[in-house]
Queue: 2 jobs
Job 1
Amino acid sequence: MLNFEFCSPTHFVFGKGTEAQAGKLVRQFGGNKILIHYGGASAERSGLLSRVRKSLEEEGLPFVELGGVKPNPRSGLVYEGIDLCRKEEVDFILAVGGGSVIDSAKAIAAGVFIEGDFWQYWETKTPVPKSLPVGTVLTIPAAGSESSHNTVITNEKTMVKRGTTGQCLRPKFSILNPELTFTLPAWQTASGASDIIAHVLERYFSNTEDVEVTDRLCEALLLTMVHETPRVIADPTCYEARANIMWAGALAHNNVVGVGREQDWATHALEHELSALRDVTHGAGLAVLFPAWMEKALPQKPKLFAKMALRIFGVEDQKDDEKTGALGIKAWRDFFTSIGMPSTLRELGMQEEDLPYMANRLMLKKDGTFGNFIKLTPADAEEIYRNCF
Ligand code: NZQ
Ligand code: ZN
């Protein structure tokens, strides 16, 4: 196991009706003037926003609002949010929505303290040093931004999608009420589940050996997702399944299942190019790309694939790691298809000419590669894209 430091200070408030505590929590974490940040129409339509406003009013907390965050959140609204926070002297941002809203809130929170263009930190993936405090009321379990120290934004001018980090970006609190996810369309539910699974797999595929504790934690989350996702697809108001998925989503990305080990993250890099270019839903892109990445990695490092196949899907042991691992990859592909995810980039609206273009836009390390479990070049990226086109 590698040396590590782990601090995940987010205060989670989980369960039915918990959004009523938003005002109290904002006060507890020092907010005096609030920006409520939200997305399109869903939070207004469900009545969630009025309940959140009421909860702030009950605490006597003044607030301003900025809605309109789009999936794959854009830089334009971040600039607007930064100006608004400075003008209104906002000292706390409350994000009401999914990963896109929370990421936009985090970018605004950091941007308030950045001289000049906030984008410089995202472009170069430089960690941000300081931000306003952010709290969240989560409406879709998926991105894990409610527990992570990450934020991912698309630059509207260049259509480049990049993420950065900062310990200050971990939400002060996150309200997780599984009932708020009953209204999710099946496509968003399944895309969110795929993203949660991908966050675990990016950590599971590691060259660090003998990290049984995090291997087993990863497997617990993967087994939960494989078991619970079909239940909510069949019955969107199944509270227990929604609850398990919501908590799995937060645990999948606060890094408790990733410490002490090298992590991969090649598939996320491959996916961000799809979302940047054709506005693809992040989790759906991952559902297509992950099996394709696995097929590329399998011949080089079959051992872990065989372990995954046996422990997650209970496949028949072929007494040959590569053959057993291949059954596991097939099981993942079948699983994603069974929950309504596509299996090709074409189904996501990608064009053949996009493939080399995206491969050449990937951010590379100094040695000209990306990914860690196996090192990939832009030529490998294009091959992976083609194999699932
Ligand atoms: O805008 P509204 O009307 O709210 O609709 C949203 C949106 O269209 C809808 N939705 C959300 N909650 C709902 C609902 N509809 C009905 N009922 C509800 N309860 O769902 C749609 C998708 O929302 P979005 O916030 O985009 O989803 P998600 O949470 O998947 O976030 C995706 C973004 O997060 C980034 C992705 O790249 C992508 O930009 N990620 C952020 C990470 C992080 N900060 O740690 C890590 C991830 O790997 C990921 O990259
Ligand atoms: Zn993700």
Job 2
Amino acid sequence: MQTLNLIAGEWVGAPTGATFPVTDPATDDVVAEVPRGGAEHARAAIDAAAAALPGWRALTAADRARPLRRLAELMVEQRERLARLMTREQGKPLAEARGEIDYAASFIEHAAEEGKRVLGEVIPASRPGQRIVVLRQPVGVVAAITPWNFPAAMITRKLGPALAAGCTIVVKPAEQTPLSALALGELSIDAGIPRGVINIVTGDAAAIGEAIFADARVRKVSFTGSTEVGRKLMVAAAPNVVRLSLELGGHAPFLVFDDADVDAAVTGAIKSKFRNAGQTCICPNRFFVQDGVYDEFVGKLAKQLQTMVLGSGLDDAVSIGPLIDDDAVAKVRDHIEDARARGAIVRTGGEIVRPGPGLTARFCRPTLLEGVDASMKLSVEETFGPVAPVRRFSSEAQAIELANASPFGLASYFYTRDASRLWRVAERLEYGIVGANDGAPSTAQAPFGGVKTSGFGREGGHHVMHEYLDVKYVSIGITEPNA
Ligand code: SIN
């Protein structure tokens, strides 16, 4: 296991020698100690990324794609080792961790190919003797600030396209889950990515963040995390007018219409809500079910939830791992208690437990709440836990109004078998991502991102390349023989 930081191709500790522990949220065992870097450490990483930039930028897209593809292959080859490491530091069930390694690798593979399709333009000129040419060039040094809920994929969906575009990068992984990031760094060296192109620093988020935004060589910051932090980064980005991509919080609605395939809706609800113990930005936070199928949907969902197994993600039988830390537990507990105090009824779950000897009391039973209304905290704030609050609706217009009554706009879901309704509702939902009869829309070739307070910028698809490219207009004057 790699526990040091990667700067300019060397494995280094923090300049002060300070470290902090990475713990397993299922057991509180210390998995490793990693460097507690600060501003000086971050500047060294930026120096390295800036020094590596001219050489990397000058390569052809195909020459950049080759080591990137190798990195993706190495990740898949070492899936089991990487997945176990991820489960230990993050807690998610092994099956999900294995899936995340493949998902993470797919962003690199996809971006490596997209890098070859970064096209310029020649635009018809407005006068004789002029040629209008548009170049797309790498923005320069990029910083990626990534969360703990997807310790590998949230890095690769930034790093892949940044590198494919010709940028170099400084990655600051979440304090809870730095080990997956450092493991990717190791594989990047084995894959032949030149020194300094990828730099990884762990430690004091505030000091590292300040150093990143204070350094005019960093031309782009891509962040995944809360809307609260995203707002602060927008302020921090102002002095140097740094470009941002912000993938922020969500509060996804999940609509089930009377004409839905209810079994498919239940399967979609399990996939979207209970993945990673409900700790994803695209998790549904509000279920709205039409009167005609309400009892069937709620009954079937409750039955499924009662079959889910809590425990250490390292146990293959487990489907729900721990919440990441005690703050997360406090928030989930508060949301459940607040809802109960305001009249919600716990149909199943509702408890935070210690599911076995040697395990922490950070496991929330998959929870289904009925009798929910708009006054409850979980109707307006992201819960980030395995809690499904369900409300009824009676008409399509009401469902759309309820679904859009949120400042967030990341993901949304609905189930219907009516093709006209499918188009109408998809067009009217004010969200960047719509799963129409699909509880798992995320994939590397599609644009992922939000509107409203869920942020801006897209990850995945050909769209992501533009996040790491500047547009340069070149107006060329030439001599025409007859002019
Ligand atoms: C997230 O919710 O933070 C990412 C989920 C995904 O990529 O599917």
